[in-house]
Each structure stands twice: as C-alpha cells, then as structure tokens.
Amino acid sequence: MSASRTSPLAAVLAAFATAAAAQISDARDGPMPGVPSDAAPPVMDRGIFAHAILNELEGRFNGGNPEFRWEGQGWVGTDYDKLWIKSEGTLQSNGALDDGQQQFLYARAMTTYFDVQGGLRSDIDSRPTRNWAAFGIQGVAPYFFDIEVTGYASGEGHLAAKLEGSYDLLITQRLILQPQIEINLYSKADPARLIGAGFSDIDTGLRLRYEFDRKFAPYIGVVYEGKLGQTASLARQAGESTGDVRFVLGVRVWF
Amino acid sequence: MTGPVFTRRRLLGGAAAISALTLAPWRSRSAPSRAPVLSGAEFQLEIGAEPLNITGRPVTGTGINGQIPAPILRWREGDTVALAVTNRLSEPSSIHWHGVRTPSPMDGVPGLSFHGIAPGETFVYRFPVRQSGTYWYHSHSAFQEQTGVYGPIVIVPRGGYAEAFDRDYVVMLSDWTDDNPGRIVSNLKFQSDYYNYAQRTLGGFVADAQRRGLAETVADRLEWGKMRMSPTDILDVSGAPYTYLINGQPPGRNWTALFRLGERVRLRFINGSSMSIFDVRIEGLPMIVVQADGNDVVPVTVDEFRISVAETYDVIVQPMAERAYTIFAQAEDRTGYARGSLASQAGMAAAIPPMDPRPMRTMADMGMAGMEHGEMPRMELSPEGKRLEAKVGVDNVAMMPTERLDRAGEGFPSSRRVLSYADLRAIRPGSDPRPASRDITLHLTGNMQRFMWGFDGKKFSEAEPILLQRGERVRFVLINDSMMEHPIHLHGLWSELESGHGEYRPYKHTINVKPGEQLSYLVTADEPGRWAYHCHLLYHMEMGMFREVRVA
Would the pTM count as exceeding 0.80? Predict the structure, then answer.
C-alpha cells in the first residue's frame, strides 16, 4: 500500500474515530453492546441441500432379451426435513415398462441414523396403474448396511411391503463390491399386474463398480430376478419368465 | 536482489507508518519469500475477488489488497489502530481479528457484534491494542476464509521480547481448494467420507489378519462396524481437494526463509486453514516453542508440534550449518503436506521427508479408554448421556472421556519429542487469581453420517446463548463425544487452559479438544457483548457448531 493511497483516507478515519470511540465508551458503561437478536444469524446451519443418485442405471443381458433398468432417488431439504423422490423401472426389449414404481415422500430425521418417510407410491408402467399410501424407514443399520423398509396401503384395501438393503465392500479405495437385495410382498393378489399374494418377487445383485470420481462409477455385475409363489404361477400362465440370471453393465451416478 | 534486512533492533524499534516492508528479508525469483507487511496504526484494507493459480488451473479467490494470504499487519502494543475495511465483493463480508481482545462492536462477527460489511461499503474498526504476539485475521462471513480472506497479525510488545532473536518470519499454513466450498459441504452432507481415500479395504483386512490373527481382526472390524464408525476418519476434507500452503505457496514453490549461520530465527506459525490440522517439524533442527496463541510460555524444546486450526505457535530455531532445512507440515491424515525451507542461501532446498503413517482412531478417541474389544462396557450412560444419545445430531457419547493433555495425539513416531498441551506453562501467573464460581460443561457432539455438528447435540439455531455475568469467573469444561478434533475458539475473552501448572495457565484463544477428551479452562468475563464461541473447523462451524456467549 502506498502512502498516497492513505492520505485521502485520513479524513475518513478521523471522522469514524470519534464515532467508534463513542461506541466503545457505550460498551463500557451502558447496556450490553451488539446487534439486535433478530439480525441475520452468524452461521447458516439450517441450509437446504439437494442430491439425487441413480444406484442402478444399467443394461441387463441374458443372451436373449436385454432389459434396461433404473433405480434411483433424490431429496431436497434440511438436516431434519426432506422431500424425497424414489423411482425405479425396467424397460423390456419389447418396449413394455415393468416394475415402474414412483414414490413421493416426506422424510423426517427421527434418530441418528434413520429417517421416517411417508407419502405416495404410484405404480406407473405398461400394466394398470395403482396408487398406494407409503410409510417407512430408511437409514444406516449397524455394520453399515443401507436399509429401506416401506409399507403400503391402497384404497382397495391391499397392503404391501418392500425391503431393500445394500452394502459397500471396499476392495480398494475405488473398487467397490456392492451386494444388493430387494424383496416385495403383497397381502392380496392383483392379477391385472401379475402379482400374487405373499412374497412376490426378489431382485438381488452383486455389482463391482469403479469410482473414477465419487459421483461417477461404471460397474459390471450379475443380478437375479425371481418371481415367487403365486406371482410365479401368474407369470407362468402369462408365458413370462419366473426367474432370470442376468449380466449387468451400468453406471452409478449422483449429483 | 536483496530487500531490507529485518534485524532485532529494527523489530523492537518499529515504524509507525504504513509502508511496504518485507518481514522476509530476501527477495528471490526461485523462492518467492516476500510477504507484504503493513505496519503502523492506520490501515486501509480492501476485500475483493482475486485471480490466482495454485494448482495449475487459473481460478478466482477472495483476497485483501490483492493478496492471498492477506498482508501481514504489524501493530505495536499500546497503539490504537484504525482499520478501514472496504468490501469489494458482491456479497456481505467482515473481518475478525482472531485472538485480539477488542470491544465487542469491533470483533467483526456479522449477526453478533455488527451487521457485517455490505458490498461497496467501508467499515472502520478502531480499538486499542492491549496485548502483543502472533495472531491472525480472517473473514467471518460464509466461506470467504476458505477462499483466501485470511492474513497474519504481528503485535510488537511494548516492553521488548522475552526471548532474543535475529530474524523474524511468519509461517502461515493454510489449505487451498479450487472447488467451491459450498459444494464441498454439500458433498459431505450426502457422503460424509467423500474425501477419505484411506478407508479400510479388503486388502487391509487380509494384511491385518496375517499380522494380528483372523479372530482379532474380525472382532475389531465388527466393533467399529457396530458403532457405524470408521477409525480412518481423521480429517473431513483431505488432500484430495486440498493443496497445502505456506504463506500462500504450494510445496513445489518452496517458500524459503533465509538465515545466516548461528542466527536465532523466530518462526511465527499460524494455522489459517479452514479444515486442516498440521504436524510441523523442521528436519534436523529442534524448535524452541516460546509462545502459544500470542502469549509467552516457558520455552520448551521439541522436534515436532501439532497445530490445530486457528492456533499459533512461535518457535525459535538456531541453524548451525550452511544448508537448507525443510519446514515440513503434514496434514494430520497424511494426505498431503505444506513445505518450505529455511536456507542459508536463496534457491537451496533439502530433501522432503516421506510422510509418517496415517494415524487411526482408537477406543480412547471414542471415549472408551482402556477397553479392548470383547470387553464392550456393560456400563450405563448417565441420564444426561442418554438424553444426549437420543438426539439426531449425536452419534456417540463418550462413556469414559479422558484428560490427555500430556499426549500430543495419535500419529507420531516415539522417537520424536512432540509438544503437548501439558508442556505449555505461562511465564507469569494469570491476572485473575479468583477461583471459578461455577462450571459450564459442554459436550462437543456430531453426527458424522449426516455431517451435523453442535454443542450438546444442538446446532446454533436450536440453542440459547450461554449467559455470563460481567466480571464473572467461570470454568468451561469440554467433553468431546465425537471422534474428530475440535479447535474451540472463544471470541473476546481469554481461555486459560488448566494444563497442570497451577496459576501459570497458558492463555489461549483456541483450544483443541481431542476425540474422547475432557479438558477445562478458566474464563474471566471482563468484556461485555455478544461473543462468538465455536469450533474453528469452518464446515463444522457453518453447520452449527457455534454458540453465542453473552456477557452482560
């Protein structure tokens, strides 16, 4: 800083000096100094954040009819309150959309590791649409298992439940093996959607991803899609597969 | 090309005029050791956008008078300083004088002491300087501290220095990232181990099983897994996004301080980082620690010291060979280092040592000292502990917190003499002989998974101020329930650390509390106002690890 820049400042300083001195003397003798309590806070600890992740964005291959599947979720909100969207679906090679579940939830942080979620689920795909009320929990269980357990009730008095879990096993810092499982069950059959009562289907996979970046990780893997019990019978009657092991190729991305 | 040499006499004399002096005596093209110094009693500072290139990528940071770090401010004890700070940014800004005891309207915390400095406006700070030593200044607004608004303060003592020296250098450590700080904190909210690339892996499991046996390794993994904790959590933000700097220079540029043989060189270490704790040593040169947080301590000779965020340590070294010595400041998580040199000639450099092994958290860090696995405590938490544990913002309550002031922390080889808080003994008794009239006990808590931080499980926005009577003498007792260090900074009042030296308590402004540790310090509430009290890890503070201490 050059001396020439300071000279115009001198007058300003002199003017402020008097005011500042008065302020200090107020502080000593008068009431406690400081800005009013309703001023903008010193830290913004109630910030709103938003993220979305596609855990599965993949082609599923078994030599015959390839499938395209996505499974992801996103949220926006604070530490305690979030709006949550979950979406999954499988596009068959014949153009039919299967297992299209969309959920719109409000989530509240209830414990250190778990959120309680409630809202709507819409099954929107090539079969008749169904709507459900949804209520569940999502979080991290001991030993770092990511868990989602959700119960559903429809206007027709049907009940359903979905259990999902996954685990990240670090082979190296960037090479990660992820076992994953999803199981659905229903209280009553819904033949129009080829769903039977009881445990209906299982979708489980083992994916090996490489995190080039935390947010971008291509993977390979193997999945098993199986229909169970009454649902399997309905699938057989419709001429559909009841169980399928597929090789997958995809990318896990988040924003 | 040589600049003016700063001799001891010159330092003691001082010059009460604004001038562009160099605290570092030599200029050199290969080793840019020149730091701008502003001295005197009246200062004009402009906060503004500043282009810079640390990593090879041109980016824009925020600086003061075109400098990152900001210029060294050199004051004299006893002067009244006036600092006109103009905000040339497009967002509100502020300057806080860290560790400097000012009347509260001059403390520079928006929302508590003043309204901040609006874009285009000038705020004139004016206060008497009633202390001496090494301090620093930084923005207290948003993430401007991370993007460059920080600089050193050197206050020359009126009565001369307790320890003689021939040269005087500021060594300001900091962490730089090209990334947007808002993005960093957002990433941590979604994945708290986002920047940790030293986690436990399958390979590590196999290696541990071979070394320690399968059963013990499995038990160890299960124990941490059950708690949903990782012992590899050392620093939330690592060398992945950070480049570590000395006086604004990355390791490759080798910031250099020059000496002549036999001279006593004072190095004023300041950790101006946002999130990085450093372990500092000078290879082949013992350091005599003479000051901590601006206050003289009984000199203690060490090989290394850990400096938490916002702390300062002054050391004196006396190189006895015509050579270069590496100033080596490794990040606590060993993901990178800041590096500079002490050299008898410009352009000299010594070998850069390898980084030490990365430390791991222990059961003591979890507040379960002395408990090996297999003997998980059947103890019950206190009712207060249970209340804390039930909060969303709390992922651990220390069952048995321990006072470990005589320990420097984890990650040091036993061959080195490392400074601990127990080594800090003030050179004179404290000025307030009264005992504390009451204890204020606070738990340092966090939820790593959700990246929430607070005191007693509450964020700033959820908590009431801590009320102190004017003139009151109190003891703050801190219990760190979390598994991260927290450098706790009380504005406006001294924190007199009870480090085991009776009335010779070191006066500090920032006290680092290790994981699972309990410690205490005395405070005299002799300055009225609304004071900030917070963890100085920037992202912990901004996420709510912040309280108002109101002295009325």
Answer: yes
